[in-house]
Amino acid sequence: MDANQITYFSYIGGGILFAILTLTLIWLWHRKATHFTLVTAALVSTAWLLLVATHYDHSTLSLGDMLVIETCRYAAWITAILAALKFATGQELPKKFFYGIHSLWLSALVIIGLLKSTAPSLLDNSDIFIWANLLLAIVSLICVEQLYKNANSLRILKLYSLVLGGLFAYDIFLFSYSLIFNVIDIQLWQARGAINGCSALLMTIGAITLSTPSATTRIAISRPAAFYTTSMTVSGAFLAIMATGGYYLQLYGGSWSNVLRTVIIFLALTCIITLFISQTLRSRLNVWINKHFFRHKYDYRVEWLKLINALSRPSDNQDFQLIAVKTLASIFKSPRGGLWRKHDKVFKLAASHQLELPNPAPTEAINSAFCRALKEHEWVFSPLSPDEGKLCELNALLPEWIANIPDLWLVVPLLTENDLLGFIILTEPELDADITWEDLDLLKTVGRQVASYLDRHQAAELLAESRQFDAFNKLSAFVMHDLKNLIAQQALVVENAAKHKDNPAFVEDAINTIDNSVARMNTLLRKLQQDEPTEIRTIDLDSLLIEVIKKCQQQKPLPSIHRECSGLKVNADPDSLLMTLVHIVKNAQDATSHNGFIDVTLGSEENFAIISVEDNGCGMSQDFMDNYFFKPFATTKSGKGMGIGVYQTKTYIESIGGTVAVESTEGTGTHFTVRIPTIKA
C-alpha cells in the first residue's frame, strides 16, 4: 500500500466518524441539547476530511483549494467555540475579543479569495499554506483555552475543549515541524486524518453520555499543573523559535552557519535549564501565572491542606511554637518570623525563626493601644503599605521596637474567640510583597487556626499537669485510707491497754496487732517507693474469709460466714485482697445497727468464686448509687470516711480479673457481690 492510499484511508475513516458525530449532534440539536454552530462545525469537518481523501484518490485539489477548505474548517470551529463560550459564561463576550477573533479568519478567507482570483500561483507556495494553518491553529487553541476555563458546569463542554485542544495542538506541532524543514511531513499529515477520526469518536460518545443538563463537572487544572504546563509551553515555543532561526541560519549563514547554530541551540538549552533550576525565576513565573490565569491568588484547598498537615505533625513541647511560626511564614513565603505569646501582663517572645532581635527580646504590654487594635479589630499591620491605603491607617500604633525590626512586613494577630493569644511578626518576602484582600482573609483565617493550635497545646500541658496532681492526690488518698485503718487498730489497743495490761493474752494480742501494723506500713512504704512489685500468690479463700471475720470482731454486729462450697483458690496479693474484703465488711458494720445482721457467703459459679456480703443496714439512695458510689472521694459517712475505699475495692478486684456489683435500697440494706476468677487446686 503506497503513501497516497494510506492517506486516503486515514482521511476517509476520519470523515466517516465525523459524519456519525454530525448525525449525533443533529439529533441533540432537535432535542435542544446543543447549539447549531457545533452541528455546522462537525459538518464542515466531515466535508473537509472527505475532500482531502478524494484528493488523494483522484488528485483534484490544488494547494490553494486545500488552503480554502482548511480555513473554512478552522472558521467553523472558531465560530462554534465562541458560541459555546458565550453559553458557558452566560453573558456577551468582550467585543474586542469577539470581533478580533472573527476578523482573523474572515481576513484570511478574503485574502485567499483575492489571491485565488488575481495571483493563484502564489497560493501554490507551501510556505503560505503552512503559515496560514499554523496561525489559525494557534487562534483556535486560544479559543479552546477560554472555553475550558469558563465551562465550569458542563462536562460536555469540558470534554469538547480537551478533544479540540488536542486536535489544534497536533496541528500546531505538524505545521511547526513543517515550518522548520520547509516541507509538510507526509507521516504526520497521514496521521492527521486518523487523529481527527478518533477525536470525532470521543466527541460522539461524550455527546451521547454527557449531554444531560445535570452532567456537571469537577475537572479543573490545578495551579501546579498550570505552572508546569505553562513552563513547558513557553520552553517549547522558545525551542521552536530557536530551531526555526537555526534552520534559516543554516540556509543563509554561509560557512559560519554550523558554529552559530550550535551556539544558539546551546544558549536556548541554557536558558531553559536556568528557568527550571532558578528558584527566583520559577517564583516570578508562578506569581505571573497566579495573576493572569486564575481568578483567585491562592489555591485555598492546597493552602488549607498544607496548614493542617504542618500543624498536625507530632512535636514535643519545645518546638510546637516554632512550628507555628514556620508554618505561617512558609504559606506567605516570608523568610523570617517570630511569635509573641501572652505571659502574665505582657506578650513575650516564645519562638523565633531567623529573626534579628535585641537581647533580651522586647515585650509588649497586653493593654497597649497596639494590642487592643489586634484584639478588637483583628487588625493586620502592614508597615510597607502605601500611605494612602487602608492598611496603613493604624500603623502609628506600632511600637517602636516592632517598627525597627529589619524588613518588617506583617504583624498578624492570633485570636481565639475574643481573646488575643499572641501575635506573629513576618519579614518581607523576596517576591510579591503586595497585600490584597485575599492575603488579609487568608492571614486572619490562618492566624485563628494557628491560635487554636497553640491554645490546644497549652490546654494539653495544663491537662497533663492537672493529671500529675490528680495522680498525686489519689496516691495520697490511698495512703491516708490505709493509715486510717492502721491507726484504728492501734487506737483500739491503746484504749484497752489500761483495762487489760495485766492480762498476758491481751499483751500477746497487742504485740501481734502492732507487729501486723508495722509489717503493713513497711509493705506500704515499699510499694510507694516502687521497690517491690505487688505480690501475687495462690490464696485459699476459706482461710482468707476467716481472717476477714477475725479483723472485724471488734465492732458490732458481728459478721457470720456461710460456705456453700470449699477449697476455692484464687491468685491475688494477700494483703490487698484481705484489706478489700475487710473494707466491705466494715462498711456494712458502719451502716448497720448493733442488733442487725451481716452475712458473708462464699459460693462458686463456673470458674468464679462468689463472695457476697449482705446487711440490713440503712442502705443507699438510687441517685447516690447511680452517680457517686464508685467514684473517689464520694461518701455517705458524714466526715467519718474519705470516700476512697469502694473505689479502691473496685479498682483492685478488676485488676485481678474480677467484678464488683452492689444492690442497695435506702432503709432496707445493701448486698455486695464480688466475683473473682478461681484456679484449679
From TrEMBL:
Enzyme Commission code: 2.7.13.3
Enzyme kind, highest EC tier: transferase
GO biological process: phosphorelay signal transduction system
Origin superkingdom: Bacteria
Domain (Histidine kinase) ranges: 478-680
Coiled coil stretches, renumbered: none
Bilayer-spanning residue ranges: 6-29, 36-54, 66-85, 97-116, 128-148, 160-181, 193-213, 225-247, 259-277
Molecular function terms from GO: ATP binding; protein histidine kinase activity
Keyword hit for Transport: no
UniProt-listed Gene3D superfamilies: 3.30.450.40, Histidine kinase-like ATPase, C-terminal domain
Catalytic activity: ATP + protein L-histidine = ADP + protein N-phospho-L-histidine
Keywords on record: ATP-binding, Kinase, Membrane, Nucleotide-binding, Phosphoprotein, Transferase, Transmembrane, Transmembrane helix, Two-component regulatory system
Name of the protein in its database record: histidine kinase
Native source organism of the sequence: Dasania phycosphaerae
Gene: prsK
